[in-house]
């Protein structure tokens, strides 16, 4: 479960000092996430680079976004006129996310191999 911070319109929020720095970091991470989602949502038949390493956020979410897991997205909106542009951006992001196709598989651990690896670690 991940709860992402909302994007900050720095001029609109009139952030200063530490809050300004936090807003810049949040926006940078969200921008990197948007690039990853855009790359994953494109036609998977073409070879492409997925920029997971552009931020810590995208590295953390790498297996959930393009891996072999089931992933759900919940987008929350505050539909008032002042937030019109932010709501549209959130809906566009959610629309791109729905085009990501993961292929979930069950990961099995070979018990015998795992036991052997444990024994080797104990001996070294």
UniProtKB/TrEMBL annotation:
Gene Ontology annotations of biological process type: microtubule-based movement; mitotic spindle organization; spindle elongation
Pfam family, one: Kinesin
Keywords: ATP-binding, Coiled coil, Cytoplasm, Nucleotide-binding
GO cellular component terms listed in the entry, alphabetical order: cytoplasm; microtubule associated complex
Keyword Nucleotide-binding attached: yes
Family assignment from sequence similarity: Belongs to the TRAFAC class myosin-kinesin ATPase superfamily. Kinesin family.
The protein's name: Kinesin motor domain-containing protein
Annotated organism of origin: Vitrella brassicaformis
